[in-house]
## 1
Amino acid sequence: MFNLPNMLSFLRLLLVPVFLVLLAQGEDAWALVVLSISSFSDWLDGFLARRWNQITRLGQLLDPAADRLYIFAALIGLAWRDLVPWWIVLIVVGRDIFLLILGVILANFGFGPLPVHDLGKVATFCLFYALPMIMLGQAFPQLEWWSQPMGWAFALWGAFLYWWAGIVYAIEAMRVIRLPRVGPGVSSDTLE
């Protein structure tokens, strides 16, 4: 369903390659502008969807997809420029591959995706806070003395929470798979 919140999410997706190109070319200030616009539209699409009762399945798919793509783009762009180590990229991408496999397993048992857990939201917030802070120090070297330690503190905490949330999702998936079947399958409340 096309509505304003979904169009904002789609706009965020379209800005991902713009963000990545700016970041890869070292245009950190402009990349931060694009990231700021995207972050605001992320907040706005969720606010409007709830306010106008326009929460849709499409929006529930687009919003986390855009979040993941921005995190991946920021990590890959920063790692490409040797500003973050590749191991942190592998930690974050590895967790999402793990959850993708978990989703396939759930689907094979007739279940939909698990509802988003607050721990996962906190982990994503930490990464969304960390990566711009790291970029800020690159764009404005006079701010590096505080933006780098803050960015790295949130990046490491976010990566830890990201995997912790992944483990929580795995435990929840095992619990759901073991539930007795009462029909054609139980679906998640996330994608209703």
## 2
Amino acid sequence: RGFHPFWCATCALGFPHQVAYQDHLRSDIPCNVPGCSYAASEQLVRIHHLNIHENNLRNRMSNNILHQTRPM
């Protein structure tokens, strides 16, 4: 598959030429969650957001509900 000296640190794709690498970097969009450094194609960012941020929010919410004390 050839030598790829240019690597995207975010998505781990390799590129044989700097021009292709720079084009790729321009196509990456960042995740809009504050403090998250993930960036990729729009579709991958959408999947990342669902899997990481929304699932974490659901898990935290269900944990909060499970750990709430009920009045007797």
